[in-house]
Amino acid sequence: MELYLVRHGETQANRDGVYCGSSDVALTPQGHQQAQAVAHQLQGIAFDAAYASRLRRTQQTLRPIIGAQGPFHVHAGLDEINFGEWELCHHRDLARQQSAAYRAWCDDWRSAVPPGGEGFVGFSARVEAVLAELLARHEGQRVLVVAHQGVLSLLCARLLGMAAESMWHFSFSQGSHSLIAVRQGFAVIRSLNDRSAVN
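== Alpha-ribazole phosphatase ==
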């Protein structure tokens, strides 16, 4: 399988530096430009399947890549982690207004859960289930996944046989694409945050 990974384009939440997981925010004008840039990079590639999360920002990024009429799968498992009551809040405000809960989460993010949100264990299990599904359904195929920073970094770590906690080693830039080739269960990073056109 050739797995193309694309992070959604810029949103206002990205610009503001706030936690944004399950909030359904749209792309900024810059985000739309980034989506068009990725569409140009991947122009001419015939994907056997394309996936996006349920959130608008991924679908707005995916649409220029596959065209107005191109089919794609909406997969809830690709949604970003849900930050609960902390959605669209800045870390400085949380440190001041919910200091105990926020400190506990920062100190033990593997186990602590944002109020009303999703814990890391559940999030990682959800994303790993998506990965297993992709590998089972699309062996030998070319697949596009447009998702979120947390989801993509976790997918990458697990594909490479690393612990889920190793996701922090991978950062996905907006306006770029990455490619991981998987053969008989062995994954190789072919490109990461590539902004060049694929020949």
